[in-house]
């Protein structure tokens, strides 16, 4: 059982404020301070420090936070297993939306053929929400395409996936729309999609409507990091539409309502059938890992590795 003082410590880490932590725990602020002082004395190190008026974790505090989150996660997993000693253990895991929509059907079909009585609970959410659920013990492991702190989570690479820009095959670009408004399309664009086939710089897309996932999504974060590396941001697009559904983004893009950036595996069928087309971009060759992750240092690491092996067959 996790020591009540460790629970206090984790609550302070979450709130980064002793008073708010005391309110959340329904204990007095001096009691919170006493619990933290006990842990600092026990470990013979400072766990928090102030930068101006802001409370910050020390390096030692960060180590203890990571270890405590893993201990809390493992205790919840252990309680679940103890309550189901006469039943097959339930798989409680998460998948990001791209992974859930594109890969998990095939993965779970194989798994259920081998284990037809398996009990499975899969939560589909964006990367940041799944990391939070992992830390809280709501799930045991996750398959994600987003970024995560590798010093906090053990991981196995599931696959490398290409990340591309796509649009409808007959999409009208900003310069084509301008030409159309002048009634000069045939003189400037005598061939179909003549301007589409050339490679564009990413800044040439800024006049288009960008269809993008919500903040916290791994798919969006890949784009944000790519833009940042070129001193751009999503705010450079004239029109941005946030959509939490991968399927809706695909449908809107096929309808010519904008452009989007997705993993190639998420639009493989559409590219093959011709309802979407890849946008050639200069200097935009990106791939990213899909990863199987769990809390670093978990006592159930061997179990998670075995599940990963079964998922990867």
Could you write a compact summary of the structure shown?
The protein is of the alpha/beta class and 313 residues long. It has helices spanning 4-15, 18-25, 29-43, 59-82, 97-102, 104-114, 127-136, 174-181, 185-188, 194-197, 218-229, 246-254, 268-273, 301-312; strands at residues 48-51, 54-57, 90-95, 119-124, 141-144, 153-167, 209-212, 239-242, 259-263, 277-278, 286-295. The chain contains 14 helices and eleven strands.
Task: Outline the structure in words.
It is a single chain. The protein is of the alpha/beta class and about 325 residues long. About 45% of the residues lie in helices and about 20% in strands. It has 14 helices and 11 strands. It has helices at about 5-15, 20-25, 30-45, 60-80, 95-100, 105-115, 125-135, 175-180, 185-190, 195, 220-230, 245-255, 270-275, 300-310; strands at about 50, 55, 90-95, 120-125, 140-145, 155-165, 210, 240, 260-265, 275-280, 285-295. The strands form 2 sheets. Strands 3, 4, 5, 6, 7, 8, 9, 10 and 11 form a 9-stranded mixed β-sheet that branches. Strands 1-2 form a two-stranded antiparallel sheet. The protein is globular, with a radius of gyration of 24 Å. This is LysR family transcriptional regulator. GO terms for molecular function: DNA-binding transcription factor activity; transcription cis-regulatory region binding. Keywords: DNA-binding, Transcription, Transcription regulation. Pfam families: HTH_1, LysR_substrate.
């Amino acid at each position: 059982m996790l020591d009540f003082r460790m629970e206090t410590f984790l609550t302070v880490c979450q709130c980064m404020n002793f008073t708010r932590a005391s309110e959340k725990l329904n204990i007095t602020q001096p009691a919170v301070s006493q619990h933290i002082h006990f842990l600092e004395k026990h470990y013979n190190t400072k766990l928090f420090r102030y930068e101006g008026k802001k409370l910050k974790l020390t390096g030692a505090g960060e180590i203890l936070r990571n270890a405590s989150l893993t201990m809390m996660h493992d205790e919840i997993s252990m309680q679940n297993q103890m309550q189901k000693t006469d039943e097959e253990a339930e798989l409680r895991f998460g998948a990001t939306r791209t992974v859930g929509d594109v890969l998990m059907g095939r993965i779970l079909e194989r798994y259920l053929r081998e284990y037809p009585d398996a009990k499975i609970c899969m939560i589909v959410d964006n990367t940041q929400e799944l990391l939070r659920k992992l830390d809280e013990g709501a799930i045991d492991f996750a398959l994600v395409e987003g970024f995560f702190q590798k010093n906090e989570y053990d991981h196995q690479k599931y696959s490398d996936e290409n990340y591309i820009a796509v649009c409808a095959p007959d999409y009208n670009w900003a310069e084509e729309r301008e030409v159309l408004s002048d009634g000069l399309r045939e003189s400037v664009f005598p061939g179909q999609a003549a301007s589409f086939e050339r490679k564009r710089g990413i800044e040439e897309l800024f006049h288009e409507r960008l269809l993008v996932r919500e903040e916290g999504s791994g798919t969006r974060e890949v784009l944000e990091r790519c833009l940042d590396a070129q001193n751009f941001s999503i705010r450079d697009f004239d029109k941005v539409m946030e959509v939490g559904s991968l399927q809706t983004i695909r449908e809107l893009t096929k309808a010519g309502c904008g452009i989007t950036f997705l993993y190639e595996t998420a639009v493989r069928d559409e590219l093959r059938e011709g309802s979407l087309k890849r946008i050639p971009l200069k200097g935009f060759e990106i791939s990213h890992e899909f990863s199987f992750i769990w809390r670093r240092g978990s006592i159930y690491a061997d179990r998670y590795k075995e599940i990963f092996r079964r998922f990867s067959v």
